[in-house]
Specification:
With 92 residues, this protein is of the alpha+beta class. It has a domain of 64 residues. Helices cover 40% and strands 28% of the residues. The chain has a 3-stranded antiparallel sheet with strand order 1-2-3. The termini are far apart.
């Protein structure tokens, strides 16, 4: 089936390919990039330019043309970005 779809896409013009790309992108979850970085709080050391605390994991992804950052924690774990956005919205 995939071979047939790939052959058929060769027949599409540029506008049709862009529409197909947009459609497929709407069906896929956003790609997630994980990063570890120290976090700064309001303590004296952090306020005076200290390095911050720990190495905490954050997940970055783009959804609806907006980059989001989700705190993951100290432990390494994968997240579902859309579920995490929903949880974040409920906490507000």
């Amino acid at each position: 089936m995939l071979d047939k779809l790939m052959r058929e896409t060769k027949k599409l013009n540029l506008e049709e390919l862009r529409n197909l790309h947009e459609y497929i992108g709407s069906k896929l979850p956003p790609a997630v990039v994980y990063q570890q970085k120290p976090s700064k709080c309001g303590c004296k050391n952090c306020k005076e330019g200290g390095e911050g605390h720990g190495k905490y994991r954050y997940a970055y992804f783009t959804y609806h043309n907006k980059t989001h950052c989700i705190y993951v924690g100290k432990e390494k774990r994968e997240i579902n970005p859309l579920e995490e956005l929903e949880k974040k919205a409920k906490r507000r």
